[in-house]
């Protein structure tokens, strides 16, 4: 079946501009996660959606970062007033239920110039 | 907050050598443990996982890992590596806190290069 998809695959933006990244999870997966992977670093948890519960935003690095999810489908991660340190690969993962394996998308490589 | 340490950031081995990648985590409660692999140009995929039961778990492609609770460790092993095992390997932990499981906490990864 179809896996997790993300778009765009690459995004180059100027410092100060807003960007929106999209994630389409596996159908039926109730949980959705966003992670950030900076060059040479591990993955950094950003935000977690579980069903209709309030999202866990504890990993968001600043108030410039926000994310939304419509029901149990598409999610968008928005970064406002981008900075060069926001350059990273942003990964989305979905999960059938709380303890299961997470399935990762291919990521969006964001470059802020 | 929990953390995951991978001791080897870069490992270079020859084909047929044995592999062991170290992973330690810092959480005393209930955890699930994972090893993910990212082959060149591909996205992250699960290698193996530990939820409960037998602490020695077997994954894909001949990999295995042993959960040693007393040492807070979950080391990855393979008796004989192949050139195709060249990849980035990530250890991750998922903990139970309050109302549910949190996002995965990842180690910084180990870049494994297998020389033919």
Detailed description of the structure:
Chain A contains no helices and 10 strands. With 113 residues, chain A is mostly beta strands. The model of chain A has no long low-confidence stretch (mean pLDDT 91). Chain B is mostly beta strands. Chain B has no helices and 13 strands. In chain B, the strands form 3 sheets. In chain B, strands 2, 5, 6, 10, 11, 12 and 13 form a 7-stranded mixed sheet that branches. Chain B is globular, with a radius of gyration of 14 Å. The N and C termini of chain B lie far apart (41 Å). The mean pLDDT of chain B is 90.
Q: How helical, in percent, are the residues of chain B?
A: under 10%
Oligomer: heterodimer
- Secondary-structure element series of chain B: EEEEEEEEEEEEE
Largest sheet of chain A: 6 strands, mixed
Summed over residues and divided by their number, the pLDDT of chain B gives a mean of 90
Number of helices of chain B: 0
Question: Which pair has the most extensive contact?
Answer: A-B, 24 and 24 residues
| Shape type of chain A | globular
Strand content range of chain A: over 45%
What's the total count of β strands of chain A?
10
Could you give a short account of the major beta sheet of chain B?
A: 7 strands, mixed
The computed structural class of chain B is mainly beta
Helix content of chain A: under 10%
**Termini Cα gap of chain A:** 37 Å
Secondary structural class of chain A: mainly beta
Average pLDDT value of chain A? 91
Instruction: State Rg of chain A.
Output: 13 Å
The overall strand count of chain B is 13
Shape by Cα distribution of chain B: globular
Which value, in Å, is the CA radius of gyration of chain B?
14 Å
């Amino acid at each position: 079946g179809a896996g997790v998809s993300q778009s765009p695959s690459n995004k180059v933006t100027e410092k100060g501009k807003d960007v929106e990244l999209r994630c389409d999870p596996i159908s039926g997966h109730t949980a959705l996660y966003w992670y950030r992977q900076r060059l040479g670093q591990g993955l950094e948890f950003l935000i977690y959606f579980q069903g209709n519960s309030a999202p866990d935003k504890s990993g968001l690095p600043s108030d410039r970062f926000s994310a939304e999810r419509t029901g149990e489908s598409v999610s968008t991660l928005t970064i406002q007033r981008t900075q060069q340190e926001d350059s990273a690969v942003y990964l989305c993962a979905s999960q059938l239920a709380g303890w299961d394996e997470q399935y990762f998308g291919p990521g969006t490589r964001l470059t802020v110039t | 907050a929990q953390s995951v340490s991978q001791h080897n950031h870069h490992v270079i081995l020859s084909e047929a050598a044995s592999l062991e990648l170290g992973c330690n985590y810092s959480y005393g409660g209930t955890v699930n443990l994972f090893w993910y692999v990212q082959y060149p140009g591909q996205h992250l995929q699960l290698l193996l996982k530990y939820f409960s039961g037998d602490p020695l778990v077997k994954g894909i492609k001949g990999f295995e890992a042993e959960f040693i609770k007393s040492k807070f460790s979950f080391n990855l092993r393979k008796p004989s590596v192949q050139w195709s095992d060249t990849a980035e390997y990530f250890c991750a932990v998922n903990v139970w806190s309050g109302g549910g499981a949190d996002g995965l906490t990842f180690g910084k990864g180990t870049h494994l290069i297998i020389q033919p």
